[in-house]
C-alpha cells in the first residue's frame, strides 16, 4: 500500500468519524458509550495511518537526499573548494571514524594532524561536517518544532534588539508643528545552555567492520537531542534550559471551561493574533487537546479541524497548519493548552558545532566504550506579538 492509498484510507476513516458525530447531533444528544468507544477506535486508526504515511514520506525524503549527495554532493564540493581543502576534509572524516573505533591512542600521526582541526580543550573533537548534517536531519525527524522556528548559529551570547512599540504619525495642518512620537526598543538576550548525553557501545561492535558507527551515533544522538530540545523549545522554564514558546507567548483567549474548549474560543484565538502574523501561523497543542478540537464546528457547521489527505500536507485548523507536541500542557485548569502564532518569532541560537568525546576507560569493566556528545544553545520568543495562547479557566 503506497502513501496515497494510506491517506485515502485515512480520509475514509475520518468521514466515518464525522458520520458518528453527525448522527448523534441529528438526535440532539451526546455519544452513547458504544458510539464513543467506536469513535475513539477510529480516531486511533486514523492517527496510526497518518503516522504510517509520515514515516513513508520521511524515509523517501532521506533516501532521495542521500542519493543526491552520492551522485552530486562530492563533485560539487570539489568544484567549490581547492583540492587541498577537499583532501583535508576527507582526512578529517576518516580520522573521526578511526577515532570513534579505536580512540586517539591508536591513530597515526597523519590522522592526529587531521583531528587537530577540531581539537577541544577537554579532549573532545568538533564533529565533522558530514556527521553534523546527519545529526540535524535526525533532529528534524524527531523535533518538528526546530524546522518551524528561526535558527541562528553564534559563537557567543547574542543581544537581539526588539521594537516593543511603534511610533505614530498624525495629520498636521499647514505650517503647524509636527507631533513627536518615538518608538520604544528592548532586547532579548540569547545565552547558552548545555545539552548532553552519553551512549555506550560494546567493544565487539566497534571492532566489526559491518557496523556503521557513524550512522549509529548520529541517529541516536539525534533522537535524544531532538526529544530534549522539543521539550525545552515548547515548555522550557528558562532557568537551566531555553525559555519555551508557551511561556514567551502572549495571552490570546481565556477559556470558560477548566478542561474544555469551544469552537468560538478557537476562532477568538485565531483573531487575537495580528493579521500580518496569520499567513505563516501554526496551531500547536497536545494530542489529547487535538482530540477535543476535532469535534468542534463553526457556525456554518464546518469542522474546524481538517485532516491532511495528500502527501506532505499537514492537518489544519481553520486553514492553518496543526502541530502536535507531547511537551504542550494538557487542557487542564489554569494551563496554556493551545498556542497559535508564527513560530519563526521564536529564535534558537546554536553555538557553533557539536562536540563528541570518546570515553575509553569509564565503562571498560563492562566491555563498553562511551561516547559523550554535547551542544550548547538557547531559545526565546523574540516577538511576543507574533505568538498567542489559549489558557484554561
What keyword list fits this structure?
393 residues; alpha+beta; phage-related protein like fold; 15 strands; globular
SSE layout and pairing:
Elements: H1 3-26, H2 33-80, H3 83-102, H4 109-115, E1 125-126, H5 129-142, E2 150-154, E3 158-165, E4 184-190, E5 193-202, H6 203-207, H7 213-235, H8 245-248, E6 250-254, H9 263-272, H10 275-278, E7 282-285, H11 287-293, E8 305-306, E9 316-317, E10 320-324, E11 336-341, E12 346-351, E13 355-359, E14 368-381, E15 387-391
Parallel strand pairs: 2-12, 6-15, 7-10
Antiparallel strand pairs: 1-13, 3-4, 5-14, 7-11, 8-9, 9-10, 11-15, 12-14, 13-14
Helix pairs in contact: 1-2, 3-4, 5-7
Structural description of this entry:
The chain has 393 residues and is α+β, with helices and mostly antiparallel strands. Helix content is 42%, strand content 22%. A hairpin with a 2-residue loop joins strand 9 (316-317) and strand 10 (320-324). Helix 1 packs antiparallel against helix 2, helix 3 (83-102) packs across helix 4 and helix 5 crosses helix 7 (213-235). The longest helix has 48 residues, at 33-80. The two termini are 45 Å apart.
Amino acid at each position: 500500500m503506497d502513501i496515497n492509498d494510506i491517506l485515502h484510507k485515512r480520509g475514509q476513516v475520518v468521514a466515518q468519524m464525522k458520520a458518528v458525530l453527525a448522527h448523534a447531533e441529528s438526535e440532539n444528544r451526546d455519544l452513547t458509550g458504544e458510539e464513543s468507544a467506536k469513535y475513539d477506535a477510529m480516531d486511533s486508526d486514523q492517527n496510526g495511518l497518518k503516522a504510517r504515511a509520515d514515516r513513508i514520506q520521511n524515509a523517501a525524503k532521506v533516501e532521495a537526499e542521500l542519493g543526491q549527495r552520492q551522485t552530486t554532493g562530492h563533485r560539487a564540493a570539489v568544484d567549490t573548494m581547492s583540492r587541498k581543502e577537499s583532501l583535508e576534509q576527507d582526512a578529517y572524516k576518516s580520522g573521526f571514524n578511526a577515532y570513534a573505533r579505536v580512540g586517539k591512542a591508536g591513530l597515526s600521526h597523519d590522522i592526529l594532524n587531521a583531528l587537530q582541526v577540531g581539537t577541544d580543550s577537554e579532549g573532545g573533537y568538533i564533529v565533522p561536517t558530514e556527521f553534523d548534517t546527519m545529526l540535524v536531519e535526525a533532529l528534524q525527524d524527531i523535533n518538528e518544532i526546530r524546522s518551524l522556528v528561526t535558527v541562528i548559529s553564534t559563537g557567543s551570547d547574542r543581544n537581539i534588539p526588539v521594537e516593543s512599540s511603534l511610533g505614530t504619525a498624525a495629520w498636521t495642518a499647514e505650517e503647524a508643528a509636527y507631533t513627536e512620537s518615538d518608538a520604544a526598543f528592548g532586547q532579548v538576550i540569547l545565552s547558552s545552555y548545555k545539552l548532553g548525553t552519553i551512549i555506550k557501545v560494546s567493544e565487539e561492535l566497534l571492532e566489526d567492520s559491518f557496523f556503521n558507527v557513524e550512522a549509529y551515533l548520529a541517529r541516536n544522538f539525534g533522537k535524544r537531542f531532538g526529544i530534549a530540545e522539543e521539550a525545552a523549545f515548547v515548555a522550557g522554564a528558562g532557568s537551566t534550559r531555553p525559555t519555551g514558546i508557551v511561556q514567551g507567548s502572549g495571552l490570546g483567549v481565556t477559556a470558560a471551561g477548566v478542561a474544555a474548549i469551544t469552537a468560538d474560543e478557537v476562532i477568538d484565538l485565531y483573531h487575537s493574533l495580528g493579521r500580518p502574523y496569520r499567513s505563516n501561523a501554526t496551531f500547536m497543542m497536545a494530542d489529547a487537546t487535538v482530540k477535543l478540537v476535532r469535534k468542534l464546528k463553526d457556525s456554518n457547521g464546518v469542522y474546524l479541524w481538517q485532516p491532511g489527505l495528500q502527501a506532505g500536507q499537514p492537518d489544519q485548523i481553520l486553514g492553518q497548519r496543526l502541530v502536535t507536541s507531547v511537551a504542550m500542557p494538557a487542557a487542564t485548569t489554569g494551563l496554556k493548552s493551545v498556542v497559535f502564532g508564527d513560530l519563526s518569532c521564536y529564535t534558537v541560537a546554536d553555538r557553533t558545532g557539536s562536540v563528541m568525546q570518546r570515553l575509553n576507560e569509564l565503562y571498560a569493566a563492562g566491555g563498553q566504550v562511551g561516547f559523550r556528545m554535547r551542544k550548547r544553545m538557547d531559545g526565546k520568543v523574540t516577538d511576543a506579538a507574533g505568538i498567542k495562547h489559549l489558557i484554561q479557566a
